[in-house]
Amino acid sequence: MTRREYVQLLSGAAAAAATPAFAAGDASDRERRMKWWHQARFGMFIHWGLYSVVGRHEWVMEDEAIPVAEYQQLARQFKPKPNAARDWARLARRAGQKYMVMTTKHHEGFCNFSTRLTDYCAPKQGPGRDLVAEYVEAARAEGLRVGFYYSLMDWHHPDGARCATDEAARRRFVDYIHGQIRELLTNYGKIDVLWYDVAWPLDKDGWESEKMNAMVFQLQPDIIVNNRNKLEGDFSTPEQRIEAAKNAWESCMTMNDSWGFQKSDDDWKSPKTVIRNLITCSRDTGNYLLNIGPKPDGSVPEPSVQILSTVGSWMDRNGHLQHRGVPTTAIELRWLHAARQHAVHAHSLLARRHGDHRGADDAGEIGAPAGLGEDGAL
Length: 378
Hints:
7-stranded parallel β-sheet; 2 domains; alpha/beta; TIM Barrel
Protein backbone atom coordinates (compact mmCIF):
# COMPACT_ATOMS: atom_id res chain seq x y z
CA MET A 1 0.00 0.00 0.00
CA THR A 2 1.38 3.41 -0.96
CA ARG A 3 1.51 6.34 1.47
CA ARG A 4 -1.20 8.17 -0.51
CA GLU A 5 -3.47 5.12 -0.39
CA TYR A 6 -2.87 4.86 3.34
CA VAL A 7 -3.89 8.52 3.86
CA GLN A 8 -7.05 7.98 1.80
CA LEU A 9 -7.89 4.87 3.80
CA LEU A 10 -7.55 6.73 7.09
CA SER A 11 -9.61 9.68 5.88
CA GLY A 12 -12.32 7.45 4.49
CA ALA A 13 -12.65 5.54 7.76
CA ALA A 14 -12.92 8.80 9.66
CA ALA A 15 -15.65 10.12 7.37
CA ALA A 16 -17.67 6.93 7.65
CA ALA A 17 -17.63 7.12 11.44
CA ALA A 18 -18.15 10.87 11.77
CA THR A 19 -21.94 11.24 12.03
CA PRO A 20 -22.74 8.90 14.94
CA ALA A 21 -19.47 9.52 16.79
CA PHE A 22 -19.66 13.23 17.52
CA ALA A 23 -22.40 12.76 20.13
CA ALA A 24 -19.78 11.17 22.39
CA GLY A 25 -17.98 14.50 22.62
CA ASP A 26 -20.82 16.98 22.74
CA ALA A 27 -21.59 19.40 25.58
CA SER A 28 -24.05 17.06 27.28
CA ASP A 29 -21.23 14.54 27.82
CA ARG A 30 -18.65 17.12 28.91
CA GLU A 31 -19.21 16.98 32.66
CA ARG A 32 -18.47 13.27 32.76
CA ARG A 33 -15.39 13.50 30.59
CA MET A 34 -13.92 16.49 32.41
CA LYS A 35 -14.47 15.45 36.02
CA TRP A 36 -10.89 14.23 36.49
CA TRP A 37 -9.47 17.33 34.78
CA HIS A 38 -11.30 19.73 37.10
CA GLN A 39 -9.93 17.78 40.06
CA ALA A 40 -6.39 17.71 38.68
CA ARG A 41 -5.80 21.49 38.50
CA PHE A 42 -2.05 21.16 37.84
CA GLY A 43 -0.33 19.62 34.82
CA MET A 44 3.06 19.45 33.09
CA PHE A 45 3.57 20.69 29.52
CA ILE A 46 6.60 19.31 27.62
CA HIS A 47 8.07 21.00 24.52
CA TRP A 48 10.71 18.77 22.96
CA GLY A 49 11.84 18.39 19.37
CA LEU A 50 14.55 19.28 16.86
CA TYR A 51 14.58 22.86 18.16
CA SER A 52 15.96 21.41 21.40
CA VAL A 53 19.13 20.47 19.49
CA VAL A 54 19.60 24.10 18.41
CA GLY A 55 18.77 25.43 21.89
CA ARG A 56 17.49 28.77 20.65
CA HIS A 57 13.72 28.63 21.18
CA GLU A 58 11.09 26.41 19.55
CA TRP A 59 10.41 29.00 16.82
CA VAL A 60 14.05 29.08 15.71
CA MET A 61 13.28 27.68 12.24
CA GLU A 62 10.89 30.55 11.53
CA ASP A 63 12.64 33.28 13.51
CA GLU A 64 16.00 32.66 11.83
CA ALA A 65 14.53 31.77 8.42
CA ILE A 66 16.35 28.42 8.33
CA PRO A 67 15.54 26.64 5.04
CA VAL A 68 13.69 23.34 5.29
CA ALA A 69 16.53 21.40 3.66
CA GLU A 70 19.00 22.76 6.21
CA TYR A 71 16.76 22.46 9.26
CA GLN A 72 15.74 18.87 8.58
CA GLN A 73 19.36 17.78 8.96
CA LEU A 74 18.82 18.22 12.70
CA ALA A 75 16.68 15.07 12.64
CA ARG A 76 19.83 12.95 12.34
CA GLN A 77 21.50 14.83 15.20
CA PHE A 78 18.59 14.38 17.60
CA LYS A 79 19.66 11.36 19.69
CA PRO A 80 18.13 11.51 23.16
CA LYS A 81 18.96 9.06 25.90
CA PRO A 82 16.57 6.10 26.31
CA ASN A 83 13.43 6.66 28.38
CA ALA A 84 14.14 10.27 29.29
CA ALA A 85 10.40 10.67 29.89
CA ARG A 86 10.65 8.58 33.05
CA ASP A 87 12.47 11.46 34.75
CA TRP A 88 9.82 13.92 33.53
CA ALA A 89 7.00 11.81 34.91
CA ARG A 90 8.68 11.29 38.27
CA LEU A 91 9.31 15.02 38.51
CA ALA A 92 5.69 15.78 37.63
CA ARG A 93 4.41 13.42 40.30
CA ARG A 94 6.77 14.91 42.92
CA ALA A 95 5.54 18.39 41.97
CA GLY A 96 1.92 17.42 42.54
CA GLN A 97 1.02 17.54 38.86
CA LYS A 98 -1.71 15.13 37.82
CA TYR A 99 -1.40 15.05 34.04
CA MET A 100 1.14 15.62 31.27
CA VAL A 101 0.87 17.04 27.76
CA MET A 102 3.76 16.39 25.35
CA THR A 103 4.47 17.83 21.92
CA THR A 104 3.93 14.97 19.49
CA LYS A 105 4.55 17.37 16.56
CA HIS A 106 5.39 21.04 16.89
CA HIS A 107 5.32 23.67 14.12
CA GLU A 108 8.64 22.41 12.72
CA GLY A 109 6.78 19.34 11.47
CA PHE A 110 9.01 16.70 13.06
CA CYS A 111 7.01 13.85 14.56
CA ASN A 112 8.11 12.36 17.88
CA PHE A 113 5.85 9.38 17.18
CA SER A 114 5.75 6.48 14.74
CA THR A 115 3.83 7.41 11.60
CA ARG A 116 3.39 5.82 8.21
CA LEU A 117 2.68 9.21 6.62
CA THR A 118 6.21 10.67 6.63
CA ASP A 119 9.82 9.64 7.19
CA TYR A 120 10.32 12.84 9.18
CA CYS A 121 9.70 11.08 12.48
CA ALA A 122 11.67 9.82 15.46
CA PRO A 123 11.74 6.09 14.62
CA LYS A 124 13.15 6.77 11.14
CA GLN A 125 15.63 9.48 12.18
CA GLY A 126 18.21 10.09 14.90
CA PRO A 127 16.27 8.75 17.89
CA GLY A 128 15.59 5.44 16.13
CA ARG A 129 12.53 4.78 18.28
CA ASP A 130 9.07 6.08 19.18
CA LEU A 131 9.54 8.87 21.74
CA VAL A 132 5.80 9.30 22.29
CA ALA A 133 5.50 5.62 23.23
CA GLU A 134 8.20 6.12 25.86
CA TYR A 135 6.38 9.16 27.20
CA VAL A 136 3.02 7.39 27.41
CA GLU A 137 4.56 4.46 29.26
CA ALA A 138 6.36 6.78 31.68
CA ALA A 139 3.28 8.86 32.49
CA ARG A 140 1.14 5.81 33.15
CA ALA A 141 3.83 4.27 35.36
CA GLU A 142 3.51 7.30 37.66
CA GLY A 143 -0.29 7.28 37.63
CA LEU A 144 -0.55 10.43 35.53
CA ARG A 145 -3.09 11.24 32.83
CA VAL A 146 -1.74 11.36 29.26
CA GLY A 147 -2.13 14.33 26.91
CA PHE A 148 -0.97 14.87 23.33
CA TYR A 149 -0.09 18.30 21.94
CA TYR A 150 -0.36 18.42 18.15
CA SER A 151 0.37 21.44 15.95
CA LEU A 152 -1.90 21.77 12.94
CA MET A 153 0.51 24.26 11.39
CA ASP A 154 3.48 22.55 9.74
CA TRP A 155 6.52 24.37 8.33
CA HIS A 156 8.05 21.23 6.87
CA HIS A 157 5.16 19.84 4.84
CA PRO A 158 5.22 21.16 1.26
CA ASP A 159 1.48 21.93 1.40
CA GLY A 160 1.59 23.53 4.86
CA ALA A 161 1.30 27.09 3.50
CA ARG A 162 0.18 26.36 -0.06
CA CYS A 163 -3.05 24.84 1.26
CA ALA A 164 -4.46 28.33 1.87
CA THR A 165 -4.71 29.09 -1.87
CA ASP A 166 -4.58 25.72 -3.63
CA GLU A 167 -7.49 23.32 -3.15
CA ALA A 168 -5.55 20.26 -4.23
CA ALA A 169 -2.83 21.15 -1.71
CA ARG A 170 -5.47 21.71 0.98
CA ARG A 171 -6.95 18.28 0.32
CA ARG A 172 -3.55 16.58 0.60
CA PHE A 173 -2.53 18.49 3.71
CA VAL A 174 -5.81 18.08 5.60
CA ASP A 175 -5.80 14.35 4.84
CA TYR A 176 -2.24 14.21 6.18
CA ILE A 177 -3.17 16.03 9.41
CA HIS A 178 -6.34 14.02 10.00
CA GLY A 179 -4.39 10.85 9.26
CA GLN A 180 -1.74 11.64 11.87
CA ILE A 181 -4.33 12.50 14.50
CA ARG A 182 -5.98 9.16 13.77
CA GLU A 183 -2.65 7.38 14.26
CA LEU A 184 -2.01 9.16 17.56
CA LEU A 185 -5.42 8.26 18.93
CA THR A 186 -5.27 4.66 17.69
CA ASN A 187 -1.79 3.45 18.55
CA TYR A 188 -1.23 4.40 22.21
CA GLY A 189 -4.23 3.18 24.16
CA LYS A 190 -6.44 5.54 26.14
CA ILE A 191 -5.49 9.21 25.70
CA ASP A 192 -6.94 11.79 28.07
CA VAL A 193 -6.25 15.16 26.39
CA LEU A 194 -5.78 16.32 22.79
CA TRP A 195 -4.18 19.76 22.76
CA TYR A 196 -4.41 21.31 19.28
CA ASP A 197 -2.24 24.31 18.42
CA VAL A 198 -2.00 27.00 15.71
CA ALA A 199 -4.66 26.58 13.04
CA TRP A 200 -2.86 28.83 10.51
CA PRO A 201 -3.48 29.12 7.60
CA LEU A 202 -6.99 27.62 7.45
CA ASP A 203 -10.31 28.27 9.18
CA LYS A 204 -12.48 25.59 10.76
CA ASP A 205 -14.06 24.75 7.41
CA GLY A 206 -10.70 24.46 5.73
CA TRP A 207 -9.44 22.14 8.45
CA GLU A 208 -12.75 20.25 8.42
CA SER A 209 -12.62 20.63 12.18
CA GLU A 210 -16.08 19.19 12.80
CA LYS A 211 -15.05 16.00 11.03
CA MET A 212 -11.72 16.11 12.86
CA ASN A 213 -13.36 16.19 16.29
CA ALA A 214 -15.91 13.58 15.26
CA MET A 215 -13.05 11.23 14.45
CA VAL A 216 -11.33 12.08 17.73
CA PHE A 217 -14.36 11.22 19.85
CA GLN A 218 -15.13 8.13 17.82
CA LEU A 219 -11.65 6.83 18.61
CA GLN A 220 -11.43 8.14 22.18
CA PRO A 221 -14.91 8.68 23.71
CA ASP A 222 -13.51 9.86 27.06
CA ILE A 223 -10.99 12.36 25.71
CA ILE A 224 -11.16 16.14 26.19
CA VAL A 225 -9.99 18.61 23.53
CA ASN A 226 -9.04 22.28 23.60
CA ASN A 227 -10.30 25.07 21.35
CA ARG A 228 -7.35 25.64 19.02
CA ASN A 229 -8.76 23.92 15.95
CA LYS A 230 -11.23 26.83 15.61
CA LEU A 231 -14.04 25.04 17.47
CA GLU A 232 -15.26 25.74 21.00
CA GLY A 233 -13.72 22.58 22.42
CA ASP A 234 -13.97 21.51 26.04
CA PHE A 235 -11.66 24.18 27.45
CA SER A 236 -9.97 27.44 26.46
CA THR A 237 -6.22 27.99 26.68
CA PRO A 238 -4.99 31.46 27.74
CA GLU A 239 -1.25 31.50 27.09
CA GLN A 240 1.35 33.11 29.40
CA ARG A 241 -1.45 34.75 31.38
CA ILE A 242 -4.18 33.87 33.85
CA GLU A 243 -7.55 34.76 32.43
CA ALA A 244 -10.59 33.19 34.06
CA ALA A 245 -13.49 32.30 31.78
CA LYS A 246 -17.09 31.26 32.21
CA ASN A 247 -16.37 27.84 30.76
CA ALA A 248 -13.48 25.52 31.57
CA TRP A 249 -10.05 27.08 31.06
CA GLU A 250 -6.38 26.22 31.46
CA SER A 251 -3.55 28.72 31.74
CA CYS A 252 -0.39 27.42 30.06
CA MET A 253 2.91 29.04 31.02
CA THR A 254 6.64 28.63 30.65
CA MET A 255 9.00 28.53 33.64
CA ASN A 256 11.31 31.01 31.92
CA ASP A 257 10.47 32.84 28.68
CA SER A 258 10.76 29.89 26.27
CA TRP A 259 8.74 26.77 25.59
CA GLY A 260 11.54 24.77 23.98
CA PHE A 261 15.06 24.48 25.41
CA GLN A 262 16.77 27.88 25.24
CA LYS A 263 20.38 27.86 26.39
CA SER A 264 20.56 31.60 27.05
CA ASP A 265 17.19 32.05 28.77
CA ASP A 266 17.77 32.38 32.51
CA ASP A 267 14.67 34.42 33.35
CA TRP A 268 13.27 31.74 35.64
CA LYS A 269 10.11 32.14 37.68
CA SER A 270 10.59 31.63 41.40
CA PRO A 271 8.78 28.77 43.13
CA LYS A 272 6.84 31.47 44.95
CA THR A 273 5.52 32.83 41.63
CA VAL A 274 4.61 29.36 40.38
CA ILE A 275 2.70 28.58 43.58
CA ARG A 276 0.89 31.90 43.48
CA ASN A 277 -0.10 31.25 39.87
CA LEU A 278 -1.36 27.78 40.75
CA ILE A 279 -3.42 29.12 43.65
CA THR A 280 -4.88 31.86 41.47
CA CYS A 281 -5.88 29.40 38.76
CA SER A 282 -7.37 26.98 41.25
CA ARG A 283 -9.20 29.75 43.13
CA ASP A 284 -10.85 30.82 39.87
CA THR A 285 -11.64 27.17 38.94
CA GLY A 286 -9.02 26.95 36.19
CA ASN A 287 -6.07 24.64 35.57
CA TYR A 288 -2.37 25.49 35.44
CA LEU A 289 -0.26 23.77 32.75
CA LEU A 290 3.39 24.51 33.50
CA ASN A 291 6.04 23.82 30.88
CA ILE A 292 9.44 22.17 30.87
CA GLY A 293 11.77 22.33 27.86
CA PRO A 294 14.06 19.29 28.02
CA LYS A 295 17.58 19.42 26.56
CA PRO A 296 18.26 17.45 23.35
CA ASP A 297 19.28 14.40 25.39
CA GLY A 298 15.96 14.57 27.23
CA SER A 299 17.32 15.77 30.57
CA VAL A 300 15.42 18.54 32.34
CA PRO A 301 17.32 21.79 32.94
CA GLU A 302 18.35 21.96 36.59
CA PRO A 303 16.48 25.22 37.36
CA SER A 304 13.25 23.52 36.28
CA VAL A 305 13.99 20.56 38.54
CA GLN A 306 14.69 22.84 41.50
CA ILE A 307 11.55 24.93 40.96
CA LEU A 308 9.25 21.92 40.61
CA SER A 309 10.85 20.14 43.57
CA THR A 310 10.20 23.15 45.80
CA VAL A 311 6.65 23.44 44.49
CA GLY A 312 6.21 19.73 45.24
CA SER A 313 7.26 20.20 48.85
CA TRP A 314 4.62 22.91 49.20
CA MET A 315 2.03 20.73 47.45
CA ASP A 316 2.70 17.90 49.89
CA ARG A 317 1.31 20.15 52.62
CA ASN A 318 -1.24 22.19 50.69
CA GLY A 319 -2.19 20.26 47.58
CA HIS A 320 -5.56 19.22 49.00
CA LEU A 321 -6.64 22.86 48.75
CA GLN A 322 -5.95 22.86 45.00
CA HIS A 323 -7.71 19.64 44.05
CA ARG A 324 -11.30 20.42 45.08
CA GLY A 325 -12.37 20.06 41.46
CA VAL A 326 -15.82 21.65 41.69
CA PRO A 327 -17.14 24.98 40.39
CA THR A 328 -17.38 27.50 43.20
CA THR A 329 -19.76 30.33 43.90
CA ALA A 330 -18.51 33.81 44.77
CA ILE A 331 -19.11 33.09 48.47
CA GLU A 332 -17.19 29.82 48.25
CA LEU A 333 -14.33 31.57 46.49
CA ARG A 334 -14.04 34.10 49.31
CA TRP A 335 -14.15 31.30 51.89
CA LEU A 336 -11.54 29.24 50.05
CA HIS A 337 -9.29 32.26 49.65
CA ALA A 338 -9.53 33.04 53.38
CA ALA A 339 -8.84 29.40 54.25
CA ARG A 340 -5.74 29.40 52.06
CA GLN A 341 -4.47 32.59 53.64
CA HIS A 342 -5.03 31.13 57.10
CA ALA A 343 -3.20 27.92 56.22
CA VAL A 344 -0.29 29.78 54.65
CA HIS A 345 0.17 32.09 57.65
CA ALA A 346 -0.14 29.17 60.06
CA HIS A 347 2.65 27.30 58.25
CA SER A 348 4.76 30.46 58.25
CA LEU A 349 4.34 30.92 62.01
CA LEU A 350 5.20 27.28 62.63
CA ALA A 351 8.33 27.59 60.51
CA ARG A 352 9.51 30.59 62.50
CA ARG A 353 8.70 28.83 65.80
CA HIS A 354 10.98 26.00 64.72
CA GLY A 355 13.92 28.23 63.97
CA ASP A 356 13.27 29.65 60.51
CA HIS A 357 13.82 33.37 61.17
CA ARG A 358 13.66 34.79 57.69
CA GLY A 359 12.63 38.40 57.42
CA ALA A 360 9.40 39.79 55.99
CA ASP A 361 10.90 40.16 52.53
CA ASP A 362 11.75 36.45 52.45
CA ALA A 363 8.41 35.35 53.82
CA GLY A 364 6.40 37.28 51.26
CA GLU A 365 3.97 40.15 51.65
CA ILE A 366 0.64 39.48 53.29
CA GLY A 367 -1.85 39.40 50.45
CA ALA A 368 -3.67 37.16 48.08
CA PRO A 369 -2.21 34.57 47.91
CA ALA A 370 0.58 35.24 50.43
CA GLY A 371 2.89 33.77 53.04
CA LEU A 372 5.29 32.12 50.61
CA GLY A 373 9.02 32.61 50.89
CA GLU A 374 10.99 33.54 47.80
CA ASP A 375 12.29 29.97 47.73
CA GLY A 376 8.75 28.62 48.08
CA ALA A 377 9.16 27.41 51.66
CA LEU A 378 6.57 28.22 54.30
